[in-house]
Design a protein that fits this description.
135 residues; alpha+beta; 6-stranded antiparallel β-sheet; 6 strands
Length: 135
């Protein structure tokens, strides 16, 4: 009988240890993105064909926008950049989506998706290459 109790006690301890091992902290998907400027600049380095002489760069403040059935923080960005042939492509609007306070994706904005965004000049994007000492 005593051996059975010890086995039962050992099983209970093992199960208790396992139940706590997989516990993860829950993240609020709508944490305000405090480092959004830098995270978007880093993503734009990869998104732009040519990182020099970006014109008409502008950015909005983070705002909650519809993402399917939910709301997520997003930032609208627009700029006139050059293609691989060095030709300006015209002002292109992108939207940066955030999850848990960090950039999740940077995509072309759908028509009207950034309608009403209050843009302000963004010289950091226009000076991106100079700041990164691009060749």
């Amino acid at each position: 009988m005593r051996g059975g109790m010890l086995a039962l006690l050992g099983s209970a301890i093992a199960l208790g240890a396992c139940s706590g091992a997989g516990t993860q902290e829950t993240v609020d998907p709508n944490l305000f993105p405090t480092e959004y400027h830098q995270e978007i600049l880093d993503a734009m380095r990869k998104a732009l064909d040519v990182q020099t002489n970006v014109r008409e760069a502008a950015i909005s403040e983070p705002a909650l926008r519809a993402a399917g059935r939910e709301q997520r923080y997003s930032v609208c960005v627009k700029a006139n950049s050059r293609d691989i042939n060095g030709q300006y492509t015209g002002v292109k609007e992108r939207i940066a989506w955030f999850w848990g306070g960090h950039l999740n994706q940077l995509v072309d904005a759908a028509p009207g998706q950034c309608a009403g965004a209050a843009y302000r000049p963004w010289p950091e994007l226009e000076n991106l290459c100079q700041a990164a000492k691009c060749a």
